[in-house]
Amino acid sequence: MVGPDDRGLTLGDGLFETLLAIDGVLDAVPEHLARLARGCEVLGLPAPDPDEALRLMRQTLASAGLEAGRAAVRLTLTAGSGGRGLERPAVLAPLLFAAAAPAPLPEAPARLAVSAVRRNAGSPTSRLKTLSYLDNVLARHAARAVGADEAVMLNGAGEVACATAANLFWVAGGRLHTPALDCGVLAGVMRGRVIAAAARRGLEVVEARAGPEALAGAQGVFLTNSLIGVRSAASLDGRALATAEVIEALRRDVA
Question: Is 98 within 8 Å of 27 (Cβ atoms)?
Answer without folding.
Answer: no
